[in-house]
């Protein structure tokens, strides 16, 4: 893996180079093993938290981890194109627009002992801005090469905080063109529902049950690229004990192994359906 500037990463994408990179500020990673008409994203996988902000934050490392999406990158690690955040959403949230990306309050809690300075906020927002420059270059390249693109926007959520039964998988579709892409949403939901998990973990998949696909990653791509479908795909944190912070690696591996087959199968069907219609 290379440490590269944003301009170097974009240049490599434009030249259709194969590469693995971390941004030169270590805020995100991008790997491209092959140029294919689908992309995987894990914007909330990151846990890094800038040292200069430690003493200002009201929250423990565990409390930050609880709100992040650990292991979502590993669930799609085998796929040819994968972009993932390295930083905690407590510093800045890649799934919020720039004006909302640095939280003052979140999840009903104050975040900071004292307000962040404009300089501190600007440093975080620069990383947010750099990430989306690369996202724009990446999706632009895929659309120009293949005509269409599908993005699997991977997240997780804390199912134990809900006071009702919630699905193992949730698809948030309120901000995509469901008239055009509804069949692809449903086929993806059915594939997720068929995944087998160890220990008798209940396996269900729903649409707009717990979250609705309101994230900025989805909205940014959908707004800027008319032939790209983003599937906001959330797994309940059945792959860990979210209260005791224990990861169940056998569950993560089971998800990864099955998505290794199911995801490209779904992406191929999407491509074959829409490639001649653009």
Structure description:
There is one protein chain. The chain is an alpha/beta fold. It has a single domain, classed as Aminopeptidase (3-Layer(aba) Sandwich). The chain has 7 helices and 13 strands. The chain has helices at 6-14, 61-67, 72-75, 118-146, 178-193, 216-224, 249-274, and strands at residues 2-4, 19-23, 28-32, 38-42, 81-85, 105-106, 109-110, 149-157, 169-172, 205-207, 228-236, 240-241, 246-247. The strands form 3 sheets. It has a 9-stranded mixed beta sheet, sandwiched between helices. A two-stranded antiparallel sheet has the order 6-7. It has a two-stranded antiparallel sheet with strand order 12-13. Helix 5 runs antiparallel to helix 7 (249-274). It holds the Pfam family FGase. This is N-formylglutamate amidohydrolase.
What descriptors fit this protein?
single chain, 278 residues, alpha/beta, Aminopeptidase, nine-stranded mixed sheet, two-stranded antiparallel sheet, 7 helices, 13 strands, 36% helix, N-formylglutamate amidohydrolase, N-FG_amidohydro
Summarize, please.
This is N-formylglutamate amidohydrolase. Helix content is 36%, strand content 20%. The protein is an alpha/beta fold and 278 residues long.
Write the layout of secondary structure elements.
Elements: E1 2-4, H1 6-14, E2 19-23, E3 28-32, E4 38-42, H2 61-67, H3 72-75, E5 81-85, E6 105-106, E7 109-110, H4 118-146, E8 149-157, E9 169-172, H5 178-193, E10 205-207, H6 216-224, E11 228-236, E12 240-241, E13 246-247, H7 249-274
Parallel strand pairs: 1-2, 4-5, 4-8, 8-11, 9-10
Antiparallel strand pairs: 2-3, 3-5, 6-7, 9-11, 12-13
Helix pairs in contact: 1-4, 4-6, 5-7
